[in-house]
Amino acid sequence: MNSDLTTAQVSERLGTPERTVRLWCKQGRFDGARPVDTPRGSYWLIPESALKNFEKPELGRPPKAQATNAIATPNAIDITLKLNKAFREATEAEEASQKKATKKGSKK
Description:
single chain; alpha+beta; Arc Repressor Mutant, subunit A; 2 domains; three-stranded antiparallel sheet; 3 helices
């Protein structure tokens, strides 16, 4: 026989707070769980069969994803800094040569 359980009954069986069971119902973690509306408010009914294969989720936030590419390695950062410095020096040298050429052209 497949009977329905309240969030309080599920909470007792799983050893978790009733508030957590209600949250899991809203998240759809129990197959067949359904809200029931009454004049005094709503509550959840959870089929007993939904508890057979249920596994509690791990507590806390999931770990952050690890970077999969090698862009952020110290060696890559060092190379980027060297390239930026070389580009800056080349740009400054180009600007200096343009200033010299402008001054020579204006003196004639």
